[in-house]
Design goal:
Elements lengths: L2 E7 L8 H12 L13 H13 L4 E4 L15 E6 L5 H15 L5 E4 L17 H10 L4 E6 L7 E3 L2 E6 L1 E2 L11 H7 L5 E5 L1 H6 L1 H13 L3 E2 L4
Parallel strand pairs: 1-2, 1-9, 1-10, 2-3, 3-4, 4-5, 5-7, 8-9
Antiparallel strand pairs: 6-7
Length: 229
């Protein structure tokens, strides 16, 4: 049994200062906005993947179209998946899946949803969060799994139309995690079953609580595996 480390790459530039906040806004306004590393594009992701590579930790990275890195060499030993924006129709999801797959240079076996139905996060973003619909579409497209945005990690994986559905995750960010779901709880529970642990590279880079709990998890958990095991 293990931790399935889900890395949602939400922010092209992040918002740690006004300059990066503006670039992040423009990237979410115009999908073809330049991806310029010298200007701060995915600076947080590069630091995070270097960190887990140094530790030998495997992860599944969920990319939006605007957050696929130009250099994918650091991700060779990891799994890549879709962090879907346009989920209003099957055709839009298929297009997004095809585009991100082409950008990643490999077949994608699963996806998650960007946002949980509360805010519009890009000009093309579908706000609604409808996992039952996504599971039907995943089966039609031959995908292996859908990782949901629920915040109750007691919910266990189940099969829906031969698609593995992980309804919830252990969110490292305490804003989305009940107090009784501690790192010690996670360390004990993942010895009994697989648990999705969700982290965002940007919050890891700037949030002391997230960074601190990440270090605790790394010290207590010794088995990380990919979604497509």
């Amino acid at each position: 049994m293990a931790v399935l480390l889900r890395v949602d790459v939400d922010n092209p530039y992040g918002h740690s200062n006004r300059y990066l906040t503006l670039l992040n806004y423009l990237s979410n306004k115009w999908r073809r906005f330049p991806k310029i590393e010298a200007m701060g594009y995915l600076w947080h992701l590069r630091k995070f993947v270097d960190d887990i590579n140094d530790r030998g930790i495997k992860a599944t990275f969920f990319f939006r179209r605007v957050t696929v890195p130009k250099n994918l060499d650091p991700f060779t030993d990891h799994e890549l998946a879709l962090h879907a924006d346009e989920t209003d129709t099957l055709e839009h999801l298929k297009r997004e899946l095809s585009q991100v797959s082409a950008m990643c240079g490999r077949k994608l076996n699963g996806f998650s949803k960007h946002g949980s139905g509360t805010r519009k996060l890009a000009s093309w973003h579908t706000t609604e969060y409808e996992p039952e619909k996504y599971l039907k579409w995943a089966a039609l497209e031959g995908l292996k799994y859908f990782s949901g945005n629920g915040e109750n990690p007691n919910e266990q994986m189940k099969f829906v139309n031969d698609v593995r559905f992980y309804p919830s995750a252990f969110w490292i960010d305490q804003e989305y995690r009940a107090e009784h779901f501690t790192v010690n709880w996670l360390a004990n529970e993942c010895q009994k079953r697989d648990i999705v642990v969700l982290i965002h590279p940007f919050t890891w880079a700037v949030n002391h609580q997230v960074r601190g709990d990440w270090e605790k998890i790394v010290n207590k958990v010794n088995n990380f595996k990919l979604f497509s095991f």
